[in-house]
Write a structure and sequence with these properties.
Blueprint (H helix, E strand, L loop, with lengths): L5 E2 L25 E2 L11 E6 L7 H12 L2 E6 L4 H13 L7 E4 L1 H7 L15 H4 L4 H7 L10 E2 L3 E8 H6 L8 H10 L18 H10 L10 H16 L12 H9 L5 E5 L3 H5 L8 E4 L8 E5 L2 E4 L6 H11 L2 H11 L6 H4 L7 H12 L1 E4 L6 H16 L5 H15 L1
Parallel strand pairs: 3-4, 3-5, 10-12
Antiparallel strand pairs: 1-12, 2-4, 5-11, 6-11, 7-8, 7-9, 7-10
C-alpha cells in the first residue's frame, strides 16, 4: 500500500461538491426509482443509475440534459443517505451479480474497497481513452481509480478539496485579515471562542473524523500510516489541545457528521471548519460570500497540504446494458457532461480543459487556482478494508479526546490498526 500518495497537480484544478468524499449532496433514505420502466428492465439505450443526487433541487434539470445529450434514457435509484448503509448496499449489489443497476456513483472509500474485486468493468478502452484521461488529475486517477491490474474503473464526476472555510465577520472581529500559518490559526481559534461559540467546528463522528485527523497529519508533515512519526503525533495532540486545553472546539461534536457541523457553522456557532465542495449548503442558506462564509487557502504549518476527492461513475460488470452504459459514461466524461454537473450540482470539473473554460467562473475558481499553485495535494489515506479501518481509527480518536486513553496508547493502537488492515 502506498503511503500518502502525494501529487502535485499540473495543468488541472482539482476538487463534493457540496459532496464530500464522505457525504452526498442529498439522496433518499428509502430507495426509489424513476422512469418509464422498472430498474433492471432497461431496453436499448436505456440504463438504471444508482445515484446520490436524486433530492438535489436541480436533479431533474441535470437528468433532462443528460438524457438529451447522451441519447440514453436514464432510470434512477436513490442511494441511502447514511454512509455505512450506502456502502453496504453498493457492496451487496456488486458482489451478488445484481444486474438491476448499470451505473453507480461511488466515493473514494468504495473505490478503494471495490476496485480490485472484479465487480467493475474496465473503462480504459471504451471511455477513458488517452484524450480524456490526459485531462484528468493523473495522481488521483492512479491512486483511487486504477486497479492492481492497471484497469481504470471510474469516471470522476468532479474534483474537490477538503478546504478551510471561515466566517469572514468573525475573522474581522478578531482583528485579523488572514490565516497564513499555525500561529495565526491558533490565534484565530482562541479569539473567536466566546459566549458559547467556538473557533473551530468538526465532524468528529467515528466514520467522518479521519478526514480531519489526516488533514492535520499532513499539515504537520506526518504520515497517517506511521504513528511513530513525530508529525503524526503532533497532529493528534493538536486536536486534543483544541478540545481540552484551549477549549476552542466542543468535545460533544463526536456525534456530528457534516450535516450537523454545517448547520452549526451556518448558525454562527463556529468560526471555521474543514469542508468539501464549493459551498452549496452555505449558498442555500444565504451565508456564502467574501463577506460571510468562504474558502481560504490552507495555512502553512510544517507545510501547506490539502486533500482531493471525487464521486465517480462506475459500470457494474453484471450489467446487461453495457453499450448504453458506456454511451452514458462517454457523455459524463465529456465537456457537456462536466458542464452539466457544474451548472446543476456545483460540481467543479475534473477535466483541466473544462475547468479552464469561461463557463466555469467565480471566486471558487480563484481560490482553487491559489490552492493548486501553493499546496501539496493528496489522495486520502485508505486501506483495502476501508470502512473498518476508518471506524477503528475514529473510535480510537474519540477515546483519546475523552481521556479514556493516552496519546501513547492512541499511537500504539493506531499503528496496530494500520498493520491489521493494510
Amino acid at each position: 500500500m502506498k503511503r500518502f500518495w502525494s501529487l502535485f497537480l499540473t495543468g488541472s484544478l482539482t476538487i463534493a461538491v457540496a459532496l464530500s468524499g464522505c457525504s452526498g449532496n442529498g439522496s433518499r433514505a428509502n430507495e426509489t426509482t424513476s422512469g418509464t420502466k422498472d430498474a433492471g428492465n432497461a431496453g436499448k439505450d436505456e440504463i438504471t443509475l444508482y445515484t446520490i443526487q436524486s433530492t438535489n433541487p436541480k436533479f431533474q434539470d441535470w437528468l433532462k440534459e443528460a438524457e438529451e445529450k447522451s441519447g440514453v434514457k436514464i432510470n434512477w435509484v436513490a442511494a441511502p443517505t447514511d454512509s455505512d448503509t450506502r456502502q453496504q448496499k453498493v457492496s451487496t449489489i456488486l458482489s451478488s451479480g445484481d444486474n438491476t443497476v448499470d451505473i453507480l456513483e461511488i466515493n473514494d472509500e468504495m473505490a478503494t474497497s471495490f476496485k480490485n474485486a472484479g465487480w467493475l468493468e474496465p473503462l480504459q478502452d471504451t471511455v477513458l481513452t488517452d484524450d480524456v484521461l490526459n485531462q484528468l488529475p493523473q495522481g488521483y486517477m492512479k491512486d483511487m481509480l486504477t486497479s492492481s491490474k492497471g484497469d481504470l474503473i471510474g469516471v470522476p464526476s468532479y474534483t474537490g478539496y477538503l478546504g478551510l472555510w471561515v466566517d469572514q465577520k468573525k475573522l474581522e472581529a478578531a482583528g485579523m485579515t488572514s490565516i497564513n500559518n499555525e500561529e495565526d490559526f491558533v490565534k484565530f481559534l482562541k479569539a473567536t471562542t466566546k459566549d458559547g461559540q467556538y473557533g473551530y467546528g468538526g465532524s468528529w463522528e467515528k466514520t467522518y473524523v479521519f478526514n480531519e485527523i489526516a488533514t492535520f497529519v499532513n499539515l504537520f508533515g506526518g504520515d497517517y500510516f506511521d504513528w511513530s512519526n513525530e508529525g503524526s503525533r503532533k497532529a493528534v495532540k493538536f486536536m486534543y489541545d483544541m478540545a481540552n486545553t484551549w477549549k476552542v472546539t466542543p468535545v460533544d461534536q463526536i456525534a456530528d457528521k457534516y450535516e450537523q457541523m454545517n448547520q452549526k457553522f451556518i448558525d454562527g456557532k463556529y468560526a471555521s471548519v474543514f469542508m468539501w465542495g464549493t459551498g452549496t449548503d452555505y449558498k442555500q442558506a444565504n451565508r456564502y460570500g467574501e463577506d460571510q462564509i468562504h474558502m481560504i487557502n490552507m495555512p502553512e504549518f510544517a507545510k501547506r497540504s490539502i486533500f482531493t476527492d471525487s464521486w465517480s461513475y462506475v459500470l457494474n460488470s453484471a450489467s446487461k446494458n453495457k453499450d448504453a452504459a458506456i454511451k452514458f459514461l462517454k457523455y459524463a466524461a465529456s465537456e457537456d457532461g462536466e458542464l452539466n454537473g457544474w451548472k446543476n450540482f456545483d460540481r467543479y470539473p475534473a477535466r483541466a480543459d473544462v475547468a479552464a473554460k469561461e463557463e466555469v467562473a467565480g471566486d471558487i475558481k480563484t481560490i482553487y487556482n491559489e490552492i493548486q499553485s501553493t499546496n501539496e495535494v493528496h489522495g486520502r489515506p485508505m486501506l483495502p478494508q476501508t470502512m473498518e479501518f476508518i471506524s477503528e481509527m475514529g473510535t480510537l480518536f474519540q477515546n483519546y479526546i475523552q481521556d479514556k486513553i493516552t496519546l501513547d496508547d492512541f499511537c500504539k493502537k493506531a499503528q496496530e490498526a494500520v498493520e491489521r488492515y493494510k
